[in-house]
């Protein structure tokens, strides 16, 4: 069994802190450099609620089941990693003697696909993994982070219309805050490992923003990055989903203020009230008095609106884009079936402490 040391592998990078920040736009452009590789993200965060059901990962059977299921999750991804098939038996054998973690499994797949592309830097665009940054740094101490911030009003407006999060401003601003707070903790503890850029600066000057990122990763900026129309992957995913339809075109600066047509002034004030410190830090001008905190009743109403909105969004997707619907449903069904199986056939739990075992 040939185990490669971390120092001989590509540099691992995680983009943070939250989706709908222009992350695909950056990923696709950076992929023009052959030293860099970032495939469509695995989004292991969707498997995390099931992790306790795998029991004690020091038990080989449990860990092997987790490896098999992570490999399966990659196989049902909406966008396939080209020309790659993973053998879970071989992955398990390589990892069995190392620290056991679902993140270790996911990154083994990522690093392998990066090595196949002869990349020196491999980036995961699973931004939600910002909440697991501490564990990731224990597993991969050389990891770096690309922190892409965006005006919370624009980001929440975009999230509200995406099928990947909730369907209400109040709930999505809560998600926004949690992600940015997690990024803050990482910045406080490891400032040298994090590069922060604003999405709006990328919109106004692509070259400057991309050069910053390339310098941080230790790769060369390439002029081809400025013409996304040359990316075959961008063309492919733009046709797959309405969420990605703009990724095969140059960025539109006017879209930075699109939220003004998408959100009510009440929603804007809710966002500005909650996110004011971040808006002031990153230079976003307030439009309201920012004095509308969310109370318990507002949150309960938001949950119900979101539930109804989710049902309608899936029905709309089913009618308007059957391919997108079926691909997303296939992945959702895979995760639901994992849960049913794990509940039906529980794996070995961690051993009880001696004091409790008597």
Q: How would you characterize this protein structure?
A:
It contains 15 helices and 5 strands. The protein has 358 residues and is an alpha/beta fold. Helices cover 52% and strands 6% of the residues. The mean pLDDT is 90. Helix 2 packs across helix 3, helix 2 crosses helix 4 and helix 6 packs across helix 7. It has a 5-stranded parallel β-sheet, sandwiched between helices. It starts with 10 loop residues before the first strand and ends with a helix.
Per the principal axes of the C-alpha atoms, what is the gross shape? globular
Quaternary structure annotation:
single chain
DSSP strand (E) fraction? 5-15%
Which stretches are low in confidence, meaning pLDDT under 50 for 5 or more residues running? none
Sketch the topology as an H/E string, one letter per element. EHEHHHEHEHHEHHHHHHHH
Number of strands: 5
- The main sheet orders its strands as 2-3-1-4-5
In helices, the fraction of residues equals 40-55%
Number of helices: 15
Keywords:
15 helices; 358 residues; alpha/beta; 5-stranded parallel beta sheet
Summarize the structure in short:
The chain is an alpha/beta fold.
What is the topological layout?
Elements lengths: L10 E6 L6 H8 L5 E2 L22 H16 L12 H8 L6 H15 L4 E4 L8 H7 L4 E6 L2 H9 L8 H21 L4 E5 H6 L1 H12 L14 H9 L18 H4 L2 H18 L13 H25 L1 H23 L9 H4 L1
Parallel strand pairs: 1-3, 1-4, 2-3, 4-5
Helix pairs in contact: 2-3, 2-4, 6-7, 7-12, 13-14
């Amino acid at each position: 069994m040939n185990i490669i040391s971390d120092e001989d592998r590509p540099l691992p990078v995680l983009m943070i802190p939250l989706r709908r920040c222009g992350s695909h736009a950056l990923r696709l452009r950076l992929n023009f450099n052959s030293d860099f590789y970032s495939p469509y993200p695995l989004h292991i965060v969707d498997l995390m609620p099931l992790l306790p059901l795998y029991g004690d990962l020091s038990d080989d059977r449990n860990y092997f089941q987790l490896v098999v299921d992570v490999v399966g999750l990659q196989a049902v991804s909406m966008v396939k990693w080209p020309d790659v098939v993973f053998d879970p038996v071989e992955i398990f054998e390589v990892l069995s003697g190392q620290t056991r973690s679902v993140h270790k499994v996911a990154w083994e797949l990522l690093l392998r696909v990066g090595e196949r592309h002869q990349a020196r830097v491999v980036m995961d665009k699973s931004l939600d993994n910002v909440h697991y940054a501490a564990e990731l740094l224990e597993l991969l101490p050389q990891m770096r982070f690309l922190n892409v911030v965006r005006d919370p009003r624009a980001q929440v407006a975009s999230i509200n219309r995406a099928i990947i999060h909730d369907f209400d401003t109040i709930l999505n601003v809560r998600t926004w805050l949690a992600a940015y707070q997690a990024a803050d903790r990482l910045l406080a503890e490891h400032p040298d490992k994090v590069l922060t850029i604003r999405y709006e600066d990328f919109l106004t000057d692509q070259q400057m923003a991309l050069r910053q990122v390339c310098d941080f990763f230790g790769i060369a900026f390439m002029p081809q990055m400025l013409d996304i129309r040359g990316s075959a992957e961008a063309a492919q995913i733009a046709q797959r989903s309405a969420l990605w339809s703009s990724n095969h075109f140059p960025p539109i600066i006017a879209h930075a203020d699109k939220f003004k047509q998408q959100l009510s002034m009440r929603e804007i004030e809710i966002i500005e009230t909650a996110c004011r410190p971040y808006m002031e830090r990153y230079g976003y001008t307030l439009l309201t008095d920012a004095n509308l905190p969310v109370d318990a009743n507002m949150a309960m109403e938001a949950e119900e609106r979101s539930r109804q909105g989710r049902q309608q969004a899936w029905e709309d997707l089913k009618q308007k884009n059957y391919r997108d619907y079926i691909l997303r449903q296939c992945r959702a069904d895979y995760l639901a079936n994992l849960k049913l199986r794990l509940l039906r056939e529980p794996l070995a739990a961690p051993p009880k402490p001696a004091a409790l075992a008597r």
